[in-house]
Specification:
- Chain B: The chain crosses the membrane at residues 20-37, 97-121, 128-145, 165-186, 215-235, 247-265, 272-291, 297-314.
- Chain B: InterPro entries: ABC_transp_permease.
- The complex is a heterodimer.
- By secondary structure, chain A is an alpha/beta fold.
- Chain A folds into two domains: 2-14 and 162-296 and 330-348, Response regulator (Rossmann fold), CATH 3.40.50.2300; 28-161 and 299-326, 3-Layer(aba) Sandwich (Rossmann fold), CATH 3.40.50.
- Helices cover 35% and strands 17% of the residues of chain A.
- Chain A has helices at residues 2-9, 32-35, 68-83, 100-112, 129-137, 162-176, 193-206, 224-238, 253-262, 279-288, 301-313, 345-348; strands spanning 44-45, 56-62, 88-95, 117-121, 142-145, 156-159, 181-187, 212-219, 244-247, 273-275, 292-295, 318-319, 321-323, 328-330.
- Mean pLDDT of chain A is 89; it is low at 1-22.
- Chain B has one domain (42-319): ABC transporter involved in vitamin B12 uptake, BtuC, CATH 1.10.3470.
- Chain B has 14 helices and two strands.
- Chain B has helices at residues 2-36, 43-68, 76-91, 98-122, 127-145, 159-162, 170-188, 190-200, 202-207, 212-238, 249-252, 254-259, 271-290, 295-319; strands at residues 164-165, 168-169.
- In chain B, α3 packs antiparallel against α4 (98-122), α3 (76-91) packs parallel to α5 and α4 packs antiparallel against α10 (212-238).
- The longest helix of chain B is centred in the first third of the chain and has 35 residues, at 2-36.
- The model of chain B has no long low-confidence stretch (mean pLDDT 89).
- The chains are: A alpha/beta, B mainly alpha.
- The interface between A and B is medium-sized, with 33 and 35 residues.
Chain lengths: 378, 320
C-alpha cells in the first residue's frame, strides 16, 4: 500500500509533459467525433446574445482538486488565461472540494461578484443542474468543462468524448475475450458525468453480447488506492473468473493491476485492462505484460474552455458539444478488428517518468505542477 | 442599586457572552466584506448567504439539543443521505408522491432518533458510539438502496430552496421560525428546561425525578426529524437525492453549536447562539470566496474557530 501511495497518490510527484506529440503515430487531425459524425446537421449555438465588449471577468467553479488530472486541468486553464491577458480582466477560480452544497454556494457567489461568463465543472451532473440552469436563466452564459450537468441548459460543453471512451473500452474487451467472459466494471465517482456516461455507453456495447457477463460494478473514486482496495475484494470474491477489467480512467487502473500482481497473478496472466492519460498503468502493463487499451481524456480541455469562453463572449458560433481529440493506443499485439490503431503504449509511456505523470496534459516539456506558477489575470 | 445593576450586567454577560462575541465577529466579517468588494453588501449577496445557511442551520438546530443534554448525534450525515435518496427515489417525478414521500422521510428521521435514544438509555452506551454506529449502518442502507442519484423531484419543488416570502428566502424564514420556536420551548416549557437540567447534572436530575428517558427520546427524535428536514431542503436545492449528500454535515453540524456557545459537556448554551454560529460560518465562507482565498484555507479557518471556541468556553465554565 505504501508503495502504491508513494508511486501514484503523493501529490508532490505530480508531473506531466506533452509527450504524445513526440510519437510518430500520434493523431493530430481535426476532432474525429466531428469528422465521423454521420448526422448531416450538427448542433451549433448562436451566441450573439452574449456578445459584449471586453476585457471580461470569467468565473470558474471547479468541482474540486484531489487528483493529478484536475491539478493539471486547472493549470492548463491558468495558462490559457495568461495567454489571453489582453482580453481577460480577471479569472476567478473557486474550488468546491467535491461538495455539491459548496459548489452551489460558489456559483451563487461568483454570479453576485458580477462575472461575464461562468465556466463550471460540475461535481455531480444532477445536483448542480438547478444551480447552473438558474445562472443561464439570469442571462449569464455557462460553459461546462469535463463534467456536465444533466440537462442541456448551458452554451457548450468542452470535453473529450466520454461516450467514445466508454464504447471503445467495452468493444475492445468484447473482442479480446472473443465475445465471452466475465467483466468487472470500475466506475470513477458515482454520479459524476464522465463516470456515468462512460459506464452507460459501455453497457450499450456489452448488452449486445449475451455471453459477456458484468459480474460486478464498483467505484474507484478516481483513486488508485481506492481502486486497489475495491479490486482486492473483487479478486477475493471471483478470483480467476475475472476475464477483464473495464476501468473508467487511468487514475484507477494502476491500483487494479497492482491488486492482481500482489494476489499472485504471474506476468502475462493478468486480465486485459483499460486506461486513460496516466503514465503508471502503461508502465505496469508493459512490465507485467497486461493487455491494455488507452483512450485519452486530456486535461488540456480546461485551457480549451477558456478559448471557447472568449468565443462565446465575442458572439461566435460554437458547437453544442466541443469535443477535443483523444489518442488511442494499445499494447503490442492487442489490436482487435474494431480497435486497429497504430499508436502503441510503448510509444506513449515515459519509461523513466513518475507513475502519476499525465502524458496528455499539453503543458509543454518543462512543466512541473509542484513548481508551476504563472502570472494570469486574477 | 449599583451593585444590583452590576450583578445584572455580569449575569447578562455570563449568559450571553458567547453570543456577543459571535455578533462581534459577524460585524468584523461584514466590514471586511464591504472593504473587499462593493458587491458584497448587495441584496443579491445577502440573500445568497441566507439561502446557503438554511441546511446547516436546520441540522445544527437538532444537534444543539443533543449537545445540551451532554450527548451528540453523529448519525445526522448518513440520515440526511438516506432521507434524500428516499425522498427523490419515492417521489420519482410524480407530484402526487411528494407529500407522502416527505411524510415517510420525516417519520424515518424520528424513528432513527428514537432508536439512537433507546440505545443510549437502555443499553447505556455513550451517544458518541451509538450514533457513530447508527451513521455507519444508515450509510450502508443508503448504498444498498442506490449507488448513485436516485429518482427526481417534480418541477416547482425548488421553491423551498429558491422561493421568496415577503422578499426573503422561504428557507431562511422557516429557519428563523424554527429557531425562535425552539428557543421559546427551551426557555419557557417545563420539558424544555429538563433538557438543560439533564445536561447539567444527569445524576442530580435523575435523583430529582426528572424524566431522563423521555427527554432523551424527545431530543434524539428531534435531531433525527431536523436531519430529515435538512434532506428535504437539500433535495429542493439539488433536484435529486444522492447517497453521499449528507456526509459533510456530521461534523459541520457541530461547528455552529460550539461556536454559538453551547458546551459540549451539556447543560449550557442555546439555539440562538447556534443560529448566530451558522451565520458566522456562512458569512466566513462567503467573505473568503470574495477574498479569493482557496477553500482549503476555508477548512483550516473553520477548524481553528471550532478549537478556539471550545477552549474559550471551557475556560469560562471552569471559572464559574
Amino acid at each position: 500500500m505504501k508503495n502504491l501511495f508513494t508511486r501514484f497518490a503523493a501529490p508532490v510527484l505530480l508531473c506531466t509533459v506533452a509527450t504524445g506529440a513526440l510519437a510518430d503515430n500520434t493523431y493530430t487531425g481535426a476532432p474525429r467525433t466531428f469528422l465521423f459524425n454521420p448526422a448531416q446537421d450538427v448542433c451549433f449555438k448562436d451566441t450573439s446574445q452574449y456578445k459584449k465588449d471586453g476585457p471580461y471577468t470569467i468565473g470558474f467553479s471547479n468541482a474540486g482538486l484531489g487528483d493529478s488530472w484536475r491539478v493539471v486541468a486547472v493549470h492548463s486553464m491558468m495558462k490559457a488565461a495568461a495567454e489571453n491577458k489582453d482580453r481577460i480582466a480577471k479569472l476567478i477560480i473557486t474550488d468546491a472540494g467535491h461538495d455539491d452544497s459548496k459548489q452551489v454556494a460558489d456559483i451563487q457567489d461568483l454570479v453576485s461578484r458580477g462575472v461575464d461568463l461562468l465556466i463550471v465543472s460540475a461535481n455531480t451532473a444532477q445536483a448542480l443542474d438547478p444551480a447552473v440552469t438558474r445562472v443561464m436563466e439570469s442571462g449569464i452564459p455557462v460553459v461546462m468543462v469535463d463534467r456536465r450537468i444533466e440537462s442541456d441548459n448551458f452554451v457548450t460543453f468542452v470535453t473529450a468524448s466520454d461516450a467514445i471512451s466508454g464504447r471503445l473500452f467495452a468493444q475492445w474487451i468484447v473482442e479480446k475475450l472473443g465475445g465471452k467472459g466475465n467483466v468487472v466494471m470500475m466506475g470513477g465517482q458515482a454520479g459524476s458525468s464522465p463516470s456515468e456516461i462512460r459506464m452507460k455507453t459501455a453497457m450499450q456495447v456489452f448488452n449486445q453480447y449475451p455471453d459477456i457477463k458484468i459480474v460486478e460494478t464498483v467505484y474507484g473514486d478516481w483513486s488508485p488506492v481506492k481502486a486497489k482496495q475495491v479490486m482486492q475484494s473483487m479478486i477475493q470474491k471471483y478470483g480467476q473468473d475475472i476475464d477483464a477489467v473495464w476501468s473508467a480512467h487511468g487514475l484507477m487502473t494502476p491500483g487494479s493491476i497492482e491488486a492482481f500482481v500482489e494476489a499472485g497473478w504471474a506476468d502475462g496472466t493478468i486480465p486485459p485492462h483499460t486506461t486513460a492519460d496516466v503514465n503508471g498503468p502503461m508502465q505496469l502493463a508493459l512490465k507485467h505484460k497486461v493487455p491494455l487499451l488507452e483512450v485519452g481524456y486530456p486535461p488540456a480541455m480546461a485551457g480549451e474552455s477558456i478559448k471557447t469562453a472568449l468565443k462565446v463572449l465575442e458572439g461566435a458560433q460554437v458547437p453544442c458539444i466541443s469535443e477535443i481529440n483523444s489518442q488511442i493506443a494499445v499494447t503490442e499485439g492487442d489490436t482487435t478488428p474494431s480497435i486497429d490503431t497504430r499508436l502503441r503504449i510503448d510509444e506513449m509511456v515515459i519509461a523513466n517518468g513518475p507513475a502519476d505523470l499525465l502524458v496528455t496534459g499539453g503543458m509543454g516539456p518543462d512543466y512541473d505542477p509542484t513548481t508551476f506558477s504563472i502570472d494570469y489575470p486574477q | 442599586m449599583t451593585v444590583i445593576r452590576t450583578r445584572a450586567q455580569s449575569e447578562f454577560l455570563r449568559r450571553n457572552g458567547s453570543q456577543i462575541i459571535v455578533v462581534g465577529l459577524l460585524v468584523v466579517l461584514a466590514i471586511v466584506g464591504v472593504l473587499v468588494s462593493d458587491r458584497f453588501a448587495s441584496v443579491n449577496n445577502i440573500m445568497n448567504i441566507l439561502e446557503q445557511s438554511v441546511t446547516l442551520a436546520i441540522v445544527s438546530l437538532g444537534q444543539t439539543l443533543t449537545v445540551l443534554t451532554g450527548g451528540i448525534d453523529l448519525s445526522v450525515g448518513s440520515l440526511i443521505s438516506l432521507a434524500s435518496v428516499l425522498l427523490s427515489g419515492i417521489t420519482n417525478g410524480d407530484p402526487a408522491m411528494v407529500f407522502p414521500a416527505i411524510m415517510i422521510v420525516l417519520a424515518l428521521g424520528i424513528c432513527v432518533g428514537l432508536l439512537n435514544a433507546a440505545a443510549v438509555i437502555w443499553l447505556k452506551v455513550h451517544p458518541l458510539i451509538v450514533t457513530l454506529g447508527m451513521g455507519a449502518a444508515l450509510q450502508g442502507v443508503t448504498l444498498l438502496y442506490t449507488m448513485g442519484p436516485a429518482g427526481k423531484m417534480p418541477l416547482g419543488f425548488d421553491v423551498l430552496a429558491y422561493g421568496r416570502f415577503l422578499g426573503l428566502p422561504v428557507g431562511a424564514v422557516i429557519t428563523v421560525a424554527l429557531f425562535l420556536g425552539t428557543a421559546f420551548f427551551l426557555r419557557y416549557a417545563r420539558f424544555g428546561r429538563y433538557v438543560y437540567a439533564i445536561g447539567d447534572d444527569a445524576v442530580g436530575a435523575q435523583l430529582m425525578g426528572l424524566p431522563r428517558a423521555k427527554v432523551l427520546l424527545f431530543v434524539y427524535a428531534f435531531s433525527g426529524f431536523m436531519a430529515a428536514l435538512t434532506a428535504i431542503f437539500l433535495v429542493s436545492r439539488f433536484g435529486v437525492g444522492q447517497p453521499y449528500t449528507g456526509a459533510n454535515f456530521t461534523l459541520t453540524s457541530i461547528t455552529p453549536v460550539v461556536v454559538g456557545g453551547t458546551l459540549l459537556a451539556g447543560g449550557r448554551g442555546g439555539v440562538i447562539g447556534t443560529l448566530l454560529g451558522v451565520y458566522l460560518v456562512s458569512l466566513l465562507n462567503n467573505v473568503l470566496n470574495y477574498m479569493d482565498i482557496s477553500s482549503h484555507y476555508q477548512l483550516i479557518v473553520q477548524g481553528l474557530i471550532v478549537i478556539i471556541a471550545v477552549s474559550v468556553y471551557v475556560e469560562k465554565k471552569r471559572k464559574l
